Amino acid sequence: MTVVFADLAASTELGSRLSATDLARAINDFNRVSFDIATRRGARIVKTIGDEVMFVALDAAAVAHAALELFDELGHHDVFDAARAGVATGDVLELEGDCYGPVVNRAARFVAAAPDGSVTADAATAEVLTGRFAAEPLAAVEHRGLGAVPWYVLSARADAPR
What we know:
By secondary structure, this protein is an alpha+beta fold. Helix content is about 40%, strand content about 35%. Strands 2-3-1-4-7-9-8 form a seven-stranded mixed sheet. Strands 5-6 form a two-stranded antiparallel sheet. Helix 2 runs antiparallel to helix 3. The longest helix is centred in the first third of the chain and has 21 residues. The protein is globular, with a radius of gyration of 15 Å. The relative contact order is 0.18.
């Protein structure tokens, strides 16, 4: 299974410059767009966590495309500056609608460390997506509880199907 965490970058700054009503509207927009794109791509929304959404699918390409499409859509929003995502692939424990395990932890750590505007992925995801996405390696980052983990920035290839 492939797990994605997508997060609004600089949401603390957004919250400090927007009224509570405008912030709620912006977060609502983020959630709505996330749900629409993820489900259209065949992913299941697991949960929202403040300014973050978690979704999963068996098809790694579907969720990678969903994350990139989400960023493209948010780029046209009048409030958001940037987003970031972490993607990881492997065995996932599903229990009572939620997901658990090292794959989920990797995706969560990647989104927390990702540069704004990027979709980052683990080696398993990059390998599965070979030929359909470009995967540019990043310097390994020490992730709490995971050690130094190789990771990549994903981008869609112009010659690959969407």
